[in-house]
Amino acid sequence: MRTRVCITIDTEFSIAGAFSDRMKRPVAEPLVWCDVDGRSEGLGFMLETFRRHHIEATFFVETLHRHFFKHDPMAAIAQRIHEAGHDVQLHLHPCWAQFQHEDWWERTRGHRGALDNFKGRSVADSISLLEQGIATFQEWGLPRPLVFRSGNLQHDDKLYQALAQVGIPYSSNVAMAVFDSGDAAYKLYSGRHERHGVQEFPVLTFSDWKIGGKRHIKSLTIAGSSFTETRKVLEKARQAGIPLVVILTHPFEYIQSQDLAFSRTRRHSLTQRRLTQLCAFLEDNNDRFEACGLARAAAALPAGDSANTLVPGAIWDALPRMASQVAYDRLGRWMLARKYGNRRTPS
Q1: CA distance 5 to 246
Q2: In terms of pTM, does the model score above 0.85?
Q3: What is the pLDDT of residues 257-290, one digit of tens each?
Q4: 92 forms bridges with which residues in the sheet?
Q5: How far apart are CA 89 and CA 295, in angstroms?
Q6: Could you give the domains of the chain?
Q7: Sheet holding 311-312, edge to edge
Q8: Which of 60, 104, 107, 346 yields a CA-CA distance of 20 to 30 A from 184?
Q9: Nearest to residue 188, comparing CAs of 169, 208, 202, 209?
């Protein structure tokens, strides 16, 4: 049986500092399309890469931004993704709901992190937010979402109770290297695990190095993992019998930006090359790996939890990745300064 590989893309807008500075404004389409010199190096690049290599991906599309962006710019984006043949599923950042209140500025000052948390939120409140998202998909003319991912991968047991009550059967809320809820029941590294009737498929987390008794873990992302690491992790996951591997990325990771408005940008060739290499690898090895949407992959798996395997990596793969990312980040800042000058991000 082929190992299913789900490339998942959190597709969202940005508060862009509006909760800390009232003069700043949230950012919509530029964070998704990521235009550089008239070319979309974010979503446009991704859709073309997936098309060229016959990859079906899952786009977790955020909906609560509509409390601020009344013209609903994400509708056209979500429909475009769906028309391209990809899996469109639900993503929520609760902080956007503050904009439904006229006194949002007074409510949000000094509380940015807590406002965006699903951990600690009541079941009733989570249900209300989820139902808003489900209704938005209906208004957009999209299939009802079957999979959910929380903003910042925040989660707790109450969130799964809420998901069960609104009838969302699958989720991908856990990425141990991104957020650890502290609940041993959600210390999930890979595979499939049922909680309150909801099947959780965590972003695969692997150990990228171990020195003596100290082990470091890392969730599998395009921006944070070299292609060499990703390829080896996929091979080891297959050998370990992990039925489904979830990989995480965002459109804005394929550019570098000098400002929060994403108006001074350059192409991020390092992450673009990683995605291209991964897609080519999956296409060339489709006898062993199946690149597919998470909803379809989840429905095809046999019932029952799988092993919670922590895939081992190697420090000799991690060190070159760390060095290349530091070097590229410095190069990018220098190139942006050369192109736009050393201007500060506008307030």
Answers
A1: 6
A2: yes
A3: 999 889 999 999 999 999 999 999 999 999 999 9
A4: 150
A5: 8
A6: 3-340 (3.20.20.370)
A7: 214-219, 205-211, 311-312
A8: 60
A9: 202
